Amino acid sequence: MTAPIFVDHPIAQDALTVLRDARTTGTDFRAALARIALLLAAAASVRLPLAPMPLATPLEAMHAPRLTGPLPCLVPVLRAGLGLLDGFLALMPGAPVAHFGAYRDHVTLETVEYSFAAPTDLAARAAIVLDPMLATGNTASAACTRLRTAGARAISVACVLAAPEGLARLAAAHPDVAVFAVAVDRGLDERGYIRPGLGDAGDRLFGTG
Ligand code: URA
Q1: How many domains does the chain have?
Q2: Strand 111-117 relative to strand 99-104: parallel, antiparallel, unpaired?
Q3: Does the residue 60 lie in any domain?
Q4: Whose CA is nearest to atom 3 of ligand 1?
Q5: Which parts of the chain sit beneath pLDDT 50?
Q6: What are the pLDDT digits (tens) for 134-164?
Q7: Can you give the residue range of the structural domain that contains 191?
């Protein structure tokens, strides 16, 4: 298993505890996930290239750094990945957004893709897959495979919680994909849920289930 890049900022850890708490309301769940998204986005964008640009402050001329090059394509995995999207867009407002729709067959735990839409210039930019839960790793792996087929080269995955099984699976299929995570939990149960985890992220985010 490749070690994830931990986003262990105190605000992320506190927000994760709010997510784990079974008493947390949908509103508070969304807000805590949004706080984590900002910190994941900061970590996942730390190597964006900068170049000095000439400008004039009110007092004098200088060169100051601006982001250069295309922003990464953000790829929320439907549905739960949508809970991370706004935080990433807050830091990278111009980033294009692709969507990967997949569900997990509850019997086989295999990933069944039902939707993929992406900008045509994937080869020209990095891609960041957004999925709060890296559980079996099947969905993240399928999203990376799909993105590669569509031309993406540098891919990373941003999640809140990962299971060791999911990290191992993703690393086996996509050894070059970096994973950003707030925490790695004990493991999966027989239904593929991360334990101790936080339950079904999509259900808690959207009040279903
Ligand atoms: N997806 C979730 O939302 N929760 C889990 O524990 C595993 C996958």
Answers
A1: 1
A2: antiparallel
A3: no
A4: 200
A5: none
A6: 999 999 999 999 999 999 989 999 999 999 9
A7: 5-46+71-206
